[in-house]
Amino acid sequence: MNYSKILFALAIALMLPTCGLEAQTVTSPNGNVAVRFSLSQDGVPTYEMTYKKREVIRPSHLGLELAKDKHASKGLEETSLMDGFTEEDCKRSTFDETWKPVWGETSTIRNHYNEMAVNLYQKAANRHITIRFRVYDYGMGLRYEFPQQADLNYFIIKEEHTQFAMTGDHTAYWIPGDYDTQEYETQITPLSGIRQRMKTAVDGNASQTVFSPTGVQTSLQMKTHDGLYINIHEAACVNYPTMHLNLDDKNMVFESWLTPDATGMKGYMQTPCQSPWRTVLVSDDARDMLACKLTLNLNEPCKIEDTSWIHPVKYCGVWWEMIAGNNTWNYTDDLPSVKLGETDYTKVKPNGRHGANNAEVRKYIDFAAKNHLDEVLVEGWDEGWEDWYGHSKDYVFDFVTPYPDFDIKALNDYAHSKGVKLMMHHETSASTQNYERHLGAAYDLMNKYGYDAVKSGYVGDIIPRGEHHYSQTINNHYLYCVTEAAKHHIMVNAHEAVRPTGLCRTWPNLVGNESARGTEYESFSGNEPYHTVILPFTRLQGGPMDYTPGILETQIGTWNPNKKDMYVHTTLVGQLALYMVMYSPLAMAADLPENYAKYDDAFQFIRDVPLDWDDTKYLEAEPAKYITVARKAKKTGDWYLGGKCDADGHQCSVKLDFLDKHAVYDCTIYADAKNADYKTNPKAYVITHRKVRRGDVLKFTEAPGGGFAVSMKRL
Amino acid sequence: MNYSKILFALAIALMLPTCGLEAQTVTSPNGNVAVRFSLSQDGVPTYEMTYKKREVIRPSHLGLELAKDKHASKGLEETSLMDGFTEEDCKRSTFDETWKPVWGETSTIRNHYNEMAVNLYQKAANRHITIRFRVYDYGMGLRYEFPQQADLNYFIIKEEHTQFAMTGDHTAYWIPGDYDTQEYETQITPLSGIRQRMKTAVDGNASQTVFSPTGVQTSLQMKTHDGLYINIHEAACVNYPTMHLNLDDKNMVFESWLTPDATGMKGYMQTPCQSPWRTVLVSDDARDMLACKLTLNLNEPCKIEDTSWIHPVKYCGVWWEMIAGNNTWNYTDDLPSVKLGETDYTKVKPNGRHGANNAEVRKYIDFAAKNHLDEVLVEGWDEGWEDWYGHSKDYVFDFVTPYPDFDIKALNDYAHSKGVKLMMHHETSASTQNYERHLGAAYDLMNKYGYDAVKSGYVGDIIPRGEHHYSQTINNHYLYCVTEAAKHHIMVNAHEAVRPTGLCRTWPNLVGNESARGTEYESFSGNEPYHTVILPFTRLQGGPMDYTPGILETQIGTWNPNKKDMYVHTTLVGQLALYMVMYSPLAMAADLPENYAKYDDAFQFIRDVPLDWDDTKYLEAEPAKYITVARKAKKTGDWYLGGKCDADGHQCSVKLDFLDKHAVYDCTIYADAKNADYKTNPKAYVITHRKVRRGDVLKFTEAPGGGFAVSMKRL
């Protein structure tokens, strides 16, 4: 743009009425939540948010800083989308629909919001953008939209500057901001305590990139001194880098901090396009944090026409015996390194501890068949595990070549003859380009042998080198795998992948993710007892987690002398409760068959518990303290109850006023025994049977690190 | 390694006899070339090289600097492979075999060398490496070999420090060192003049990364003041970054400078492995630089069992009319940007200048059939060209979806009915990850419609972003495409890809590359008249170039008023000569059919000239001055002659003592007319017919920027 044009534009600007001080407010259907938008004097988009008239988000700026990059559209390299905006118009609408998830906590979900779309014009660069707000009774989402236009076709995001200005020094339940992992223990501090705590909050991981002493991840749960619960996250992160939050701990203002690529740039955009939704949940009742479906509602409807092949999966597998035991993924200990296609495994000496061998897998198949589990996960079945990790090795697996002691055809035939499926395992070692080269053949192999679900893994630093687990390109990779899997009717459960943002609504074959410290950490350093009563508030906001619960032999030392001090930081009953408080359509019975044999009466709950529900009622909830939930099973109409607490224990009374009128239920109660304690007496439990009716009251004493589980089968 | 071990190792070291001052020499079969290896006092591998007792390479160091990277094998992060070596042993051998290339300048190639493999031990890190020398009568190759061993399984190369110490301020024929392009005009300066000339030598390119004011590319041709011709290049660059040369212009020492990845690291190695060959050609006769097959000989034998589907290809195509004309690759001018699968081309307004339309392609098919050309290249046939370049766009093409005016089935059927094939075009826009996602489907489509050759392109900055055109990962990508293509019986001609290093011996379906300024530059800024008589000394050392010669209407302005000042920097006859002096099994007749109609008598040479030879004799050669070559056609036994010169013109006399005894040849001579000149009178030519026999002498006067071409068909 030359000077005369600029002067002309300025002249026009002076003639136009300035609307920089106007403001619009949009309120939620019930009026509890209100969001106010305005432009500052210099045209900076600004919003604020209230709940029942109480301030939740102080005036906060919105905008994006663009990179001065030669790839950006000509002339735009130097103008960011930060200020100089005037408002063109503001469109309002109301939306109210009820949709049916393919699987979930409830059979229907209501998506009811009031919307305000503010259309902004930036004269200096002749560009138009839209900021869209959707306000729900329990929170809001906002996003940036970039229509296709003459002067805005391509741009590169150097940083997004979306602010969330807090009203005080709230209590935060946070994990360190990191471009590559979420496997940190949740920290509970005031906002002002994040910087100090960061030093100890960061422990080692196979791949980690901490970026700021006050950087935290989403979903970020907070609680104010006057009892407001606030949660900041994002929804529908597609073709965009993952958002972290960086805290200005002088002013208690969070600002978005995107994950960069290898060059330090953050997002490569082509109009028409939009950012993910930036979401703020708010309520004075913690249960709303768990019951609200805002993240799912802000995602696109299901894009898979025929979903009949997608189903809940209860599974066991060859896994805990390696993670917590002494068996190995690798077939031999003799190879210093492997070259796939050159290394001849028939000529090496087996180490005798390879878990994924024919006999062991048959044992699990028999166990699954006997206990009506759907599938058997087998890790370490394919060539390459001798040097799979830590070498930045590109061609690390081919995903199709079994070890000599894993007969893929015979084992699948055997499983199918018993009504069980094997679950595929694809460890990519974070070499995404190698995985994509072999993805087609790998999925074809699954189809050939009758696998319908895959657990994928992304351990270690990403290849292409310099990329991060949560950068735009790698986020696109995860979704590419999910969409390609859908074409093959394959369900995906991706570990070490990006934390979910509700994409499972659009792609319900994404049945699980890890993206947090799972049960595996109980065999490393251990998880805090409150871990599983904070995850539903944070990690689970975006989608289900393959937490792999069900470790009834909580004292690993009883069967593995090498880990004699290692124990699960819950009681035995607490493990049962996890199937209730951490919803997932994919649930593992992770312990060894021989351990389940020891506790077969308690294992009955795992056999019984459904993974797909007609209805869910959160009866009690407090972040990192306790969660109590009742769920009604699809088809049978049976009800299940579960409660889990932190290290302090919890007293709980449940009035069964949600049961069907006049119906009688055969009730089995799995409770911590008196004096049960996750540290000192974890496996003390009591199982009682009784009949219950609507209106009955059940009382529970949850032990430290304990909980309870109840099945109520309609007679 | 702990301290006690280090002390122990040192103790051993003191006990061992130091052989650091010993030296070994290996000479070529005829004794002309000698290479001497030694270890310096501190155990630095050192070599020097002589030719007929004259020093060619002064004592030069060998070694690799390793990265201090967490991915390197434990304990080795800090020890480079630079010094502290002792010699274990030294194995010598002689090799002499004659092999048959699938296509080439001669029907057989002799691979005759003396070899010396020096096994070195580095006590400090307990590591063994081998430096292997192969010495030929016209040069040598050396490489590093890394056997698999306990303490050397994975390592990361920070830089390779292979020195080439020159004996003086030689004349160098060089182009600027660059991680992303070779499309520079060759500079001719003393070594001491590189730094100063660099400032003007670097002109703009779609993707370029110059790294040093004295950095140059290989193959680097030099000439000493006393008439020695020296050429430094590399052979068999596989799973390794491309080598550049950086000049210490105080001491006239070149040192290897590898192409980095996005993180700045250069090579990720897993033993057993080796570096590419570092080659030095030397002779006092410039013709040896062209005749020697050292680069091919240092590559692995053909890995394709059935090569019957690989054949020379003479082709025309829908290309020059876009490059030099006003037709477009894109279908419409209405789209500011494209989203494949969303953009509906049936609803947009065609720009009326789209080259790859059914009528135009049929015209070229008819032309090819009439003139017995094998194939027709069609660029711009597939959706995406409206925004294909300059936006760092990932999903830029799908390689399978034609524009509405390109009927892929009908056009292929029509071509096949006339005995002609279409040549596929895959412009990747350097988005290699997108290309790999679609490669399988793209090759399948080619098989479906009967394409057997693809011209691929890599214009612009590489995606994954931060990578370079010549980094290890991207070099692997090019080879991946070639090997996957071989499975589909597809020949590959990759443009903007890495400069070849003789891999076409191993993968003869790699029938062409660009990797230098091609004829297209004649429609931009123009090529120097000497360009095509230096390329055979440099770029062509690694393999054939798809130079797209045959522009008989050298004055573009005669048919395109928009380029009225643009002209090809050769005479018309000079264009014919290119088919002789720049060997390629893939040769385009690049001009427009209507231009060939104007010069049909001259076009006869292009119709006639074979692309595969039984024998080749370089009769005269001087870098950037002139090349005169005679070639004997496979099957027919016909002989062809060609000469090309620079802007100074050239007088040339050829004694036909290579013709078959007693045979008579029908000889057609295409010569520059008197007063012909590439600038002022380019299209003045004379065609004469005569009979010739062995011993006859032909005299030629090559005009400035001119040459000559002769066909001698055995009667």
UniProtKB/TrEMBL annotation, chains A, B:
Residues 1-23 form the signal peptide. GO terms for molecular function: carbohydrate binding; hydrolase activity. It comes from the Bacteria. Its cofactor is Ca(2+). Residues 319-516 form the Glycosyl-hydrolase 97 catalytic domain. InterPro entries: Aldolase_TIM, GH, GH-type_carb-bd, GH97_C, GH97_catalytic, GH97_N, Glycosyl_hydrolase_97. Keywords: Calcium, Hydrolase, Signal. The keyword Protein biosynthesis does not apply. Residues 612-713 form the Glycosyl-hydrolase 97 C-terminal oligomerisation domain. Residues 26-301 form the Glycosyl-hydrolase 97 N-terminal domain. Pfam families: GH97_C, GH97_N, Glyco_hydro_97. The keyword Hydrolase applies. Monomer. PANTHER family: GLUCAN 1,4-ALPHA-GLUCOSIDASE SUSB (PTHR35803:SF1), GLUCAN 1,4-ALPHA-GLUCOSIDASE SUSB-RELATED (PTHR35803). This is Glycoside hydrolase family 97 protein.
